[in-house]
Automatic annotation (TrEMBL):
Keywords: Cytoplasm, DNA damage, DNA recombination, DNA repair, DNA-binding. Homotetramer. Forms an RuvA(8)-RuvB(12)-Holliday junction (HJ) complex. HJ DNA is sandwiched between 2 RuvA tetramers; dsDNA enters through RuvA and exits via RuvB. An RuvB hexamer assembles on each DNA strand where it exits the tetramer. Each RuvB hexamer is contacted by two RuvA subunits (via domain III) on 2 adjacent RuvB subunits; this complex drives branch migration. In the full resolvosome a probable DNA-RuvA(4)-RuvB(12)-RuvC(2) complex forms which resolves the HJ. Its main location: cytoplasm. Residues 73-92, 108-127 form the Helix-hairpin-helix DNA-binding motif class domain. The lineage of its organism: Bacteria, Pseudomonadati, Pseudomonadota, Alphaproteobacteria, Sphingomonadales. NCBIfam families: ruvA. The RuvA-RuvB-RuvC complex processes Holliday junction (HJ) DNA during genetic recombination and DNA repair, while the RuvA-RuvB complex plays an important role in the rescue of blocked DNA replication forks via replication fork reversal (RFR). RuvA specifically binds to HJ cruciform DNA, conferring on it an open structure. The RuvB hexamer acts as an ATP-dependent pump, pulling dsDNA into and through the RuvAB complex. HJ branch migration allows RuvC to scan DNA until it finds its consensus sequence, where it cleaves and resolves the cruciform DNA. Belongs to the RuvA family. The keyword Mitochondrion does not apply. InterPro entries: DNA_helicase_Holl-junc_RuvA_I, Hlx-hairpin-Hlx_DNA-bd_motif, NA-bd_OB-fold, RuvA, RuvA_2-like, RuvA_C, RuvA_C_sf. It is found in: Cytoplasm. This is Holliday junction branch migration complex subunit RuvA. Residues 1-64 are annotated as: Domain I. Residues 152-198 are annotated as: Domain III. It comes from Sphingomonas olei.
Amino acid sequence: MIAYLKGILASTSADAAVIEVNGVGYLVGASSRTLAALGPVGEAVLIHTEMLVGEDFQRLVGFASAEERDWFRLLTGVQGVGARVALAILSALEPAELNRAIAAQDKAMVARANGVGPKLAERIVRELKDKAGGIVLGPAAAAQAMPIGAAADAVSALLNLGFRPVEASAAVAAAEEELGAGATLDALVRLALRKAAK
């Protein structure tokens, strides 16, 4: 699994960017907000990624922040919300706005996104009300709480196994505290799974 790409922005289009990493160009789908945040072509960029794999495709989707990637994962967990619709929502609303809309059950705000009708917007705010609590932090808190390195990959692994963001972060933080900062990804994931199961 590819957690992020760090390289040179080779080109952008309406819904994707090409990031060159060590001579390989990765095509990464993205929201308009992420594409705007990448900066000019030819500059160094870091983009958080999610790999989508289906029967007949493999696709990378990129995000300006890990927070936006977490929202993408939550959104695509809602029935009827595919990658395209999730990116349309993230193009229309930044993560803090999306958090407020879901907390307030404001389906009209979510329905501003292209391809999101009233029924789908209502399903999104209803289903995500209990799941979204652990994602959005203020910038200062996010800087302190954002896991890096093996810890970030361990959180990602737990999210892919279906844990909620707040549960995954807490379990990995507890595992890292017990194992120390130099713990391997494998050890972190195994201990975090035991702690999350308690």
